Each structure stands twice: as C-alpha cells, then as structure tokens.
Model the fold of this input.
Amino acid sequence: MQATANKLQETMGTLPTEVSPTYLPADEIDPKTGKKQIKTMKALVWVGSKDVRVVDDAPVPTITEPDDVILKVTGTTICGSDLHLYHGEIMALQEGDILGHEFMGKVHEVGPNVQGLHIGQRVVASFQVACGDCKYCKQKLSSFCDNTNKSSLQNYMYGQRDAGFFGYSHFTGGFPGGQAEYVRVPKGEVNLLPIPDNISDEQALYLSDVLPTSYHSVVDTGVEKGDIVGIWGLGPIGQCAARWAQLKGASRVIGIDRIPERLAMAEQAGIETINFDQHKDVVKRILELVPQGLDVGLDCGTFHEPKAWLHKVEKALMLETDVPETINEMIVAARKMGRCGIIAAYAGFANHVNIGALMEKGIRLIGNGQAPVHKYWREILNDYIIPGKFDPRFMITHRVPLEDMGRLYGAFDKRTDGVEKVFVQTQFSDSPGEKCPALTRVKDWA
Done:
C-alpha cells in the first residue's frame, strides 16, 4: 500500500504550501579532525509495518525558514493513533520518516522573524502545523489550515486537505516528528504555546493532542448538562473525554472497553463501564442500562481491531480500510435525534454502515475532524490545569527513555503491563515530577 500511495502522490505532484516539511541539517566541528560534520541525534523512525527503530544518526534540524523554531525535546509520547502508522494503515509512509506528533521542549534556536519566543523558554507544540493566516487559522481551527499540507493524495480522496501534521506520514505533509531529541517547528510562534514555570512537563505535554482532542469531541458533539453519554474506547482519549463530559454536567457516563486496567481507571472516576468481552451485544447492554437510549455517543476507539469475522476478512482482503462496528453500535444505542461524534482516527472506507437507522432515527452523526488544538489549548491550560480542575497526570502509567521507543510501540500495541499513557524522556528532560511514575525500561514490564 505504501509504495502504491507514494507512487500515486508522486505522479499527482504536490500542492503549494507556505512552509516546507524538509529542513537543513545542523553542523558541528568534529573534535578529532577539526572539520565540519552533520550533527546527529536519536530519533524514532518508521522502517516498515510493525518495524520502528531508534537511530542515533538522524540529522539535527537547524533554522530553514525565517519563522522556524528549533526545540530541544524534553517530553514526548506515543499516541493510540501512532499504532495506525505502526501497522502501516496510514498511506504514504516512507522509510526513515521520523514519527511523533505529541511533544514539548525548550527553545533551542529561533528564526529571524521570531519575536515572541526566546532561547530556553518552555513550550508545547500542537500536533498540527498551522499557517496562522488562512480563514480557518483566523478562527483558531488550526487542524483545518489550508496552507501547510502539500498532499495531493489527501486532497483527491477527501476533496480538501487538513493541515500538515508532525510525524504522521506524507499523507499529512511529511513533517518530521517529535519522537526525537530535537525537532523543527515551522511557524513557531503560531504552533508553540509557552508554559508557566509552575506547571510541570507532565501536566503540559498532553496539551499537544490528547487534551484538546478529547475536549473537542465533547464540545463539538454537544454534550450538555443532564446528558447520558456513552464512550467507546477507554484509552487516553476516552478516559479524558469521560472526565470532560462529567465536567460539562453529564448525568451519567458509560465507558465501553475490554481491558481490565482501563475499566478500573474509569470506575475510579465514577464512570459506569461495559466490558464487551462479557457483554458481546454492547447495544443490548446499553439499552438495559438506558432504555430510552443514549443522548450522546462518542467514538474514541480504533478501526484496526475488528470484532466480527466479516470485517476481519474484508479488512484483510483490503475490501475496506476501516471498520464501522463502533459507528453502528452508537447509531443503534442512541435515542431518536441523538448525537454521535467520531473523534477516532478513521482514514478511508468502511462497509455495512447502518445508514437506515441513521436516517430513520434522525441521528446527528458528527465527524469531529482532527481537533483544532489552537482553539482549546489556552482554555484548557488556564481554566482547567492551572486551577487544578483537570489533572492529566492521572493517565500517565509509565515513563521510559527515548531509547526504548522502538520496543515501546510493540508493548503499547499489546497493552502490556496495563500501559495507558507514557511520558518519554530525552537527555534534556527533568526528573519525574510529583504524582508521576518513575523511569522504567520496557523490557522489564510484566
């Protein structure tokens, strides 16, 4: 699939953008020879399906365009949507691509146009690269920026294209990601948020994606006071979405998953749970609990783990790329005129969608889109994290060094040792903060 997608995109050419995804390598003086050489760093690169590796010879980026900022990465992480890359399910990956779209760090270098950031300042990056000037950016809808993704393939498939994303294939612009020791952030003043000194890296890192994404799913789908909300998938997005729904006044929140540690984490927060290993018919169980149906359903899960044999076969034969099982369950479990939001990262085409129930029940099926981080990150920081109303550290179950990231992908995919969210440290990171797990090595996990 990757070779075909890359060849097709090459044939179609690229679309004009305001920023380039490629960067100039930094150089340094070799102490032995006195000659200039390319400065290198550790980074996690994609090699092939289920093959990602940490290399130590990736070139360190330097200022390439006048609005650039170069970061020393002090914290990065792995996202559930990174597993789509790991499994080769996102198109236009190329060998050697540096992955990672959630990261933060300290400003290392600034371009000549950058006035509002200074060397050594702590910042978190949005997972999307926004231009700051198009009609979407002016509304803080940064994930829909018109000017940063050159992918003609995405433009052809979707009719338009999203913003460029860090570390998420050439389908989203081909920008090197932040699972590395250094990263180049184009339009740095637009795409970086300064972090106050009294907020730890562990509290700030997830403003890059998980917190705005989960918050967006709740706000965009319209969770209101008194609503009964069902959440499919209790990974980090689902766990946070459940807590946001509670903060927005939901009368009941019901989470659907099968992983014991995830179910227990949700229950500790007052969330009702359904284990779909025990209740094979999820819709039947929901309607036993809520006879009138859910007011809101949120798809916070994944499309790469089909349950039914029909979808397993169709997906294996590439007769569909994505699986609609969760969407169908939401549609049937929702009340008439209910709202169903899709924040899970779907990419292509699904078969057997229950469009009849969607139409007849008047369901509002909402594609939430990639979350516009810039719309929410200041609100989440100032109104929730700083006052202590929402502490993202609850979801951090592990801390590992960058060197372990290749092994981490496999462990995260298998949910080894109850892993939920990981703080990945680099040589530039501080020691673990308060309420955070100590450093471990993935090979030692149970």
Remarks:
- Residues 373-385 form the longest helix (13 residues).
- Residues 214-367 form a domain with the Rossmann fold fold (CATH 3.40.50.720).
- Residues 331 and 357 are 7 Å apart (CA to CA).
- The mean pLDDT is 96.
